[in-house]
Write a structure and sequence with these properties.
The chain is α/β, with parallel strands linked by helices. The chain has two domains: 200 residues, D-Maltodextrin-Binding Protein, domain 2 (3-Layer(aba) Sandwich), CATH 3.40.190.10; 99 residues, D-Maltodextrin-Binding Protein, domain 2 (3-Layer(aba) Sandwich), CATH 3.40.190. 47% of the residues lie in helices and 16% in strands. Strands 2-1-3-10-4 form a five-stranded mixed sheet, with helices on both faces. Strands 7-6-8-5-9 form a five-stranded mixed sheet, sandwiched between helices. Helix 2 crosses helix 11 and helix 11 crosses helix 16. It is globular and about 55 Å long. This is ABC transporter substrate-binding protein.
């Protein structure tokens, strides 16, 4: 009897052991995205095409709506990795944070907003903005800073030449523009195209084309997480790089079909046109490396907006080790 009981216990122990091995074969990553946008198409492709799974990762994606909220979520341990603007890492560093956020993989390399007018402007000129009611973005956020950079490039002072309203929360900007007396706004896709289809607004210019390359959105993690989870960060970067190559190799129609589950209220045809807009202006980064020239452009834009708290060296907040390893291997 004792022998039979021993064999039974051994079998149960073996089952538990095998079950544990199966559960530890996948690493769970909590990922916070700053907003839901077609602008982040390669990330959604990595999820839907199973690239994260191929690298042994299970992604728990949450949308945290806004740079401040996303960075707070990351720093408080509510997320392992954040998809957010690189400027947030500079703000955190300037606050003398002990465990600050590091940029380790880039996703987008241009601004992702479009200038949308309430009325049709077939012959739009930037000088048309002078004296207009302009619904702006969050102070210190990349959309607003790039917007100001572009306006100044066209000799328009955003603080004095337009009636700038920055009182609306990021998530409520589309609704406020549609219902308010604003004449212009910056919008991401697919919202810009949805507004155009509905006649609520009309795309008249691209801030991405006007501002050039900049590390607009990327993946950040706390230094402590990266130190303790090097393999997971490497595998995460691998999955993103696979997706970046996949997006480059496939047309907008096919990409739209893949990412459609993330945009249930938007039809696939409109998604495809939004994706094509971003592809045509090279908004999607072709690899995860954030290079030093892009970092300098980021600081120049922040400086122009008066939002650069200090001149943080590239090597301090950018870690390309994982991206370089993934690309080389």
């Amino acid at each position: 009897m004792r022998k039979i009981r021993y064999l039974a216990l051994t079998s149960i122990g073996l089952l538990i052991f095998l079950s544990a091995c199966g559960s530890t074969g996948t690493t769970k990553i909590s990922l916070a995205e700053v907003t839901r946008s077609v602008f982040y198409t390669p990330m959604y492709v990595a999820i839907e095409e199973g690239f994260f799974e191929e690298e042994g990762l299970e992604i728990d994606l949450q949308t945290t709506w806004g740079g401040d909220t996303t960075m707070t979520t990351l720093l408080s341990g509510g997320a392992d990795i954040a998809l957010v603007g690189a400027e947030t890492s500079i703000y955190v560093y300037a606050q003398d944070s002990r465990d600050y956020a590091i940029n380790f993989a880039q996703l987008t390399q241009t601004d992702g907003t479009f200038l949308v007018a309430k009325e049709p402007k077939p012959d739009f000129e930037w000088e048309d903005l002078e004296g207009s009611n302009f619904l702006g973005q969050r102070v210190g956020g990349m959309p607003q800073m790039v917007g100001e950079y572009v306006l100044k490039k066209h000799d328009i002072d955003p603080q004095s030449d337009v009636n700038l309203d920055q009182s609306v929360d990021f998530a409520n900007i589309p609704g406020a523009f549609a219902s308010g007396d604003y004449e212009y706004v910056q919008l991401f896709e697919p919202t810009a195209s949805v507004f155009e289809r509905e006649g609520t607004g009309h795309i008249v210019a691209s801030f991405g084309e006007e501002s050039g390359k900049v590390p607009y959105t990327g993946f950040l993690a706390k230094q402590s997480f990266m130190d303790e989870n090097e393999e997971a960060v490497t595998n995460f970067t691998k999955a993103i790089y696979k997706a970046q190559k996949w997006v480059q190799e496939n047309d907008a129609d096919k990409i739209a079909e893949v990412v459609a589950p993330f945009f249930e209220d938007t039809d696939v045809e409109l998604l495809a046109s939004s994706i094509e807009r971003y592809k045509s202006q090279d908004s999607f980064a072709t690899d995860p490396i954030l290079d030093e020239e892009e970092w300098k452009q980021l600081k120049a834009i922040m400086g122009e907006a008066g939002e650069l708290p200090e001149d943080v060296p590239y090597e301090e907040l950018v870690n390309t080790k994982f991206a370089e390893e993934v690309i080389n291997n």
